[in-house]
Amino acid sequence: MFSLDALFCHVDDFCKTFEAQWHRKLLDHGGIKRVRAKSLCLSEIMTIIIAFHQNHYRNFKNFYLNQVKQQWSSAFPGLPSYQRFIEWIPSTLIPLCVYLRGCLKSDEG
After folding, report:
1. What is the pLDDT of residue 23?
2. Residue 79, phi then psi, degrees to nearest 5
3. pLDDT tens across 5-41, in order?
4. What are the DSSP calls for 90-105, one per residue?
5. How far apart are the C-alpha atoms of 52 and 62, rounded to whole Å?
6. In the prediction, which pLDDT does 34 show?
7. Cα–Cα distance between 86 and 103 in angstroms, integer?
8. Average model confidence (pLDDT) across the chain
9. CB-CB neighbours of 99 under 10 Å
């Protein structure tokens, strides 16, 4: 059984600790550039991406437009257009990999 609330809480707990460390490391190494504000936080974006892989949709566009925009709009009040969301996905690559690696380690141990 899929629970959007449980997934979001798990991802959000991870993001709270990860983001602070990640931004500190980026600042130390001079790797942070101008960061534009987004209408969704990192944990919301990651939750949507992970939820796509846990659902029956074959492509992300249908999932975003039919499931996220129509069914979950109350859970994610700041939803951007599909195109804007797609532009944000690359910024989640590192946090998403770290999160999923942590999930795999906890399943093994």
Report:
1. 73
2. -60, 130
3. 999 999 999 999 998 888 776 655 565 565 567 899 9
4. GGGHHHHHHHHHHHHH
5. 10
6. 57
7. 24
8. 88
9. 20
Answer whether 72's CB lies under 8 Å from 4's CB: yes
- Classified as helix, coil or strand, 36 is coil
In the chain, the amino acid numbered 34 is R
pLDDT at position 66: 96
What average pLDDT does this structure show over 70-91? 95
pLDDT of the residue at 32:
56
Per-residue DSSP letters for 52-86? HHHSS-SSHHHIIIIIIHHHSTTTSTT---HHHHH
Q: What whole-number distance in Å separates Cα of residue 71 and Cα of residue 61?
A: 14
The CA distance from 105 to 71, in Å, is 32
